[in-house]
Design brief:
The structure holds 2 protein chains of 2 kinds.
Chain A lengths: L2 H9 L4 E2 H11 L8 H13 L3 E3 L10 E4 L1 H12 L11 H11 L5 H25 L5 H34 L11 H4 L5
Antiparallel strand pairs in A: 1-3, 2-3
Chain B lengths: L1 E12 L6 E12 L3 E5 L6 H8 L7 E6 L2 E2 L5 H11 E5 L10 H11 L4 H14 L15 H13 L5 E5 L7 H16 L3 E6 L2 H4 L4 E6 L2 E5 L7 H5 L5
Parallel strand pairs in B: 3-8, 3-9, 6-7, 7-8
Antiparallel strand pairs in B: 1-2, 1-4, 4-5, 9-10
Helix pairs in contact in B: 3-4, 3-5, 4-5, 5-6
The chains are: A mainly alpha, B alpha/beta.
Chain lengths: 193, 240
């Protein structure tokens, strides 16, 4: 997540000082992502260096020093909001790697490995859902963050279910041979590290 | 205290070469007030488990106890009475009677059980009101949205003095917002003391449960442990 752009968004509402930014950042994310105050000041210094925010130089440096967004900062924020995150490259997913490794290892039951991960992910989902049950009705930001996390984890469970089905079918039918001439994934797309 | 108990339950369909073991040695206990999700892929036996738990089908072997009473010792009439009085069912396709209004659908089990029509309708209205559907009481199922139909089905399942709610993919035909509303209602029934079993392949649905039981090829293969407090999630942060 871009703390840099989150701070620009908060400053687009008007001048604010560091501690205030930290509090408002945490409130706007339903307090799911706590922020270190040192990180706020480091980020503000970089934003100031890049001309995206400015502060009153006459003021003493300190917790009450006001920061304001500049015109280039507004422009940067607007561009960031409309730029989709790069989802074109598959991430180097540790869970996927573990299942791939389990398939190659003799003496390892890949179904058992998949179930261990499925149970863990569902347990984490239960925790997120409890949060929603208790608090989300009262805080829209928090509800959106929790929903996003639940959908992300749900997609992991769906992948595990699909992987298990494929492994099961392959063990019955034998693995399908790759057609000649099919471009290999790694040649056509990179992998995010 | 456990309200539903399946003890070493097995179910076999067909015989000889056509024998299919739908369930094998299932043990499952659901306390009053608890919501248990049974999660598994299509064909894993989860719907069979639900129909056996609800006395709609007999197991080939093993025992089912509802409220401490063994189903194997009950006559057909006793089982029918148990179903009318104690067990509510919710299905993916709602199973509402199209010729009856919402309140008539909800009060029907009470009327079938001998309650006077007026009293049954009052109880049906109360159940609909509780689920925010009081203003839809006079509507027929085809005049309701999918989410409203499923809420009527839940009202029918919990009306009266039901202690066991059995749901088969209750939000399968609904969008995620309506699905969540359905699960909130099931959970609210549990918090009032109802024992509930929801079978599903959907992890988001299952995550509302106090316990998730995983079923594969008719066997219980795993279950979640008691969830730790959600505060543990907030204590972990990539920014700290």
């Amino acid at each position: 997540m871009s703390v840099r752009h989150a701070l620009l968004a908060l400053l687009s509402e008007g001048p604010k000082y560091g501690l205030q930014l930290r509090q408002e950042f945490e409130a706007s994310t339903g307090e799911v992502w706590p922020l270190n105050v040192g990180q706020v000041y480091t980020t503000l210094q970089r934003l100031e260096r890049d001309g995206l925010v400015e502060s009153d130089d006459s003021e003493e440096p300190g917790p009450q020093r006001d920061f304001r967004i500049t015109a280039p900062g507004e422009e940067e924020l607007s561009l960031w909001l409309r730029t989709p995150p790069d989802l074109s490259l598959p991430p180097r997913d540790e869970l996927v790697i573990k299942v791939l490794v389990a398939m190659r290892m003799s003496g390892v039951d890949v179904h058992e490995v998949i179930q261990v991960h499925r149970r863990y992910v569902v347990e984490v989902m239960q925790q997120w859902t409890r949060l929603k049950e208790d608090e989300a009705e009262f805080d829209l930001s928090f509800a959106l963050v929790v929903d996003a996390e639940l959908f992300r984890l749900d997609s992991v469970v769906r992948w595990l279910d699909t992987a298990e089905g494929r492994v099961r079918r392959a063990s019955v039918e034998g693995p399908a041979a790759a057609p000649a001439g099919l471009p290999r994934l790694r040649r056509t797309v990179g992998v995010r590290r | 205290m456990s309200f539903l108990e399946l003890q070493n339950v097995s179910k076999v369909y067909g015989d000889g070469a056509n024998e299919v073991h739908a369930l094998s040695g299932i043990d499952l206990s659901v306390d009053a007030g608890a919501l248990v999700a049974v999660m598994g892929p299509s064909g894993s036996g989860k719907s069979t488990l639900l129909t056996i738990a609800g006395s709609l089908e007999d197991p080939t072997s093993g025992e089912v106890l509802v409220g401490g009473a063994a189903l194997s010792g009950m006559s057909r009439n006793d089982k029918a009475r148990l179903r009318r009085r104690s067990i509510g069912y919710v299905f993916q396709d709602f199973n509402l009677l199209p010729g009856l209004t919402a309140v008539e659908n909800v009060s029907l089990p009470l009327e079938l059980d001998g309650l006077a029509v007026r009293k049954a309708r009052l109880a049906g209205m109360a159940a609909l009101d509780e689920l925010g559907l009081g203003d839809r009481a006079g509507h027929f199922p085809d005049q309701l949205s999918g989410g409203e139909r499923q809420r009527v089905a839940i009202a029918r399942a919990v009306v009266g003095d039901r202690h066991l709610l059995l749901a088969d993919e209750p939000s399968g035909a609904l969008d995620s917002e309506n699905g969540e509303a359905v699960m909130r209602m099931v959970l609210a029934a549990c918090r009032r003391g109802v024992a509930a079993v929801v079978v599903t392949h959907d992890a988001q649905l299952a995550s509302w449960a106090d316990r998730v039981v995983f079923i594969r090829d008719g066997h219980v293969v795993d279950q979640t442990s008691t969830p730790i407090g959600p505060d543990a999630l907030l204590a972990r942060s990539p920014h700290q």
